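Late entry, written up from scratch paper. The run itself happened at the end of the previous shift, but nothing got recorded in the book at the time, so transcribing now.
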Amino acid sequence: MPVFDFDGVPEAVGFAPLDGQYLACVTSIDQERDGQPLKTDKGDPKWNVGFTVASGERSGGRFWGDWIFPSVTGNARLMGALKRVCKHVAGVAVDGEVDIQPDLFLGKFVLVDCKPNSWKDDEGTKHTNTKVVFAGYSTASDSDVAHGKEIMAGLKAAQDAAESSEAPVPEAQAAAAADDDIPF
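Output as recorded:
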């Protein structure tokens, strides 16, 4: 293992939560955990939706939001929020019945209103993350979507390059390896 000198290196801190409106791409949808469907405390099914920021200095940042399907409670406010998601994220007509499946949303771009969210765990430790504002979705313009696609393609290319390249060899390790080629 290489030796590192940490003198003068500040300890890393967590990323600040998002605050404001961001162009984001739906990059993942989890419907279950440990083989069990995700549900609210009241029994309504929900999806945990992953977003990747696709513009500005926070490009590549990830955050998550829950989409609740009020089939058990019939909550009108939640139904309105779900309608907004279908309209602004998937771009589907929201009149009549809609068969809501993950492929309607994956890879779609949307403007998402976010704010910091803080809470304390059972041990009293404070945590902060990004929370999507209730019904905080707006349709992204065509130019925003085009820009977002460029950003996401660049992020994918950078990720692919990082995964395919060999890790750089520290200078001392390279010298030691070269020394191994000298017969004694």
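The chain has one domain: 20-161.
(Scratch paper discarded after transcription.)
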